[in-house]
Amino acid sequence: MSIDIDTARKVAHLARIAVKEEDLPALAGELSAVLNFMEELNEVDVDGVEPMTSVTPMRLKRREDVVTEGGMPERILANAPDAREGFFAVPKVVE
């Protein structure tokens, strides 16, 4: 699959990244290479292959699901760069 310059421009806009007009052909080439690699991966036969969590066989660490009192919002919010009224404060991203 090949990405043209207009599509690369649109992807950059959607990703909210500034790309100079002269850099769009290189970006289109890189995006095309990524999509070509994904197409190659789709050709690999994975029937009967178990999903892995690591390249070495190991079990996932598990712990008991225990209900606790909690009750430490001050300690948790102490790590926040901005906290207001007992909550994490984050910048507004949608207008």
TrEMBL record:
Fetch the InterPro entries from UniProt: Asp/Glu-ADT_sf_sub_c, GatC
* SUPFAM superfamilies xrefs: Glu-tRNAGln amidotransferase C subunit (SSF141000)
Protein biosynthesis found in the keyword field: yes
EC assignment: 6.3.5.-
Q: Which UniProt keywords apply?
A: ATP-binding, Ligase, Nucleotide-binding, Protein biosynthesis
Gene3D superfamilies, per database record: Glu-tRNAGln amidotransferase C subunit, N-terminal domain
Q: Which Pfam families match?
A: GatC
Q: Does the keyword ATP-binding apply?
A: yes
Q: Which reaction does it catalyse?
A: L-glutamyl-tRNA(Gln) + L-glutamine + ATP + H2O = L-glutaminyl-tRNA(Gln) + L-glutamate + ADP + phosphate + H(+); L-aspartyl-tRNA(Asn) + L-glutamine + ATP + H2O = L-asparaginyl-tRNA(Asn) + L-glutamate + ADP + phosphate + 2 H(+)
State the source organism's domain of life: Bacteria
Assigned protein family: Belongs to the GatC family.
Quaternary structure and partners: Heterotrimer of A, B and C subunits.
Q: What is the role of the protein in this entry?
A: Allows the formation of correctly charged Asn-tRNA(Asn) or Gln-tRNA(Gln) through the transamidation of misacylated Asp-tRNA(Asn) or Glu-tRNA(Gln) in organisms which lack either or both of asparaginyl-tRNA or glutaminyl-tRNA synthetases. The reaction takes place in the presence of glutamine and ATP through an activated phospho-Asp-tRNA(Asn) or phospho-Glu-tRNA(Gln).
Matching PANTHER family: GLUTAMYL-TRNA(GLN) AMIDOTRANSFERASE SUBUNIT C, MITOCHONDRIAL (PTHR15004:SF0)
Record protein name field: Aspartyl/glutamyl-tRNA(Asn/Gln) amidotransferase subunit C
* Gene for this chain: gatC
